[in-house]
Design brief:
about 5% strand; 2 strands; about 50% helix; two-stranded antiparallel sheet; mainly alpha
Length: about 120
């Protein structure tokens, strides 16, 4: 009998834990969806702001046939994005070597006069 009681209690505990984890996962999924929507909305508003600024600052129309966001200037010509090689969009990332200066505890570091100014 004791074994059955322990087994029943363990199964109830597992169900409660599973239910709690399921509820937590659903809450997190809702938060992720909300964040995706917020990021998309913010990006869209900033893009629209940039389009208004281009129109205003450069005194050109972003409406109509002459303007197409699906084109870009490539090698001096306005061409469709699909015709631009993918490697042209890659950004070169420069990694600078970081030199750490470590100072032992209690060590006194003297500065030169040019560094203090």
């Amino acid at each position: 009998m004791t074994f059955n009681k322990n087994l029943g209690k363990a199964m109830r505990d597992i169900r409660l834990e599973t239910d709690a984890l399921t509820k937590k996962l659903q809450t997190q999924n809702l938060q992720i969806d909300d964040m995706h929507k917020a990021i998309y909305d913010k990006h869209s508003r900033r893009f629209e702001k940039a389009m208004r600024q281009v129109s205003f600052l450069l005194n050109i129309s972003t409406e109509g046939v002459g303007f197409d966001v699906m084109k870009d200037v490539y090698q001096g010509e306005l061409i469709p994005l699909k015709d631009i090689l993918d490697e042209e969009f890659e950004v070169e990332v420069l990694i600078e070597e970081v030199v750490e200066n470590t100072i032992a505890e209690g060590e006194i570091v003297e500065k030169e006069a040019s560094e203090e100014a």
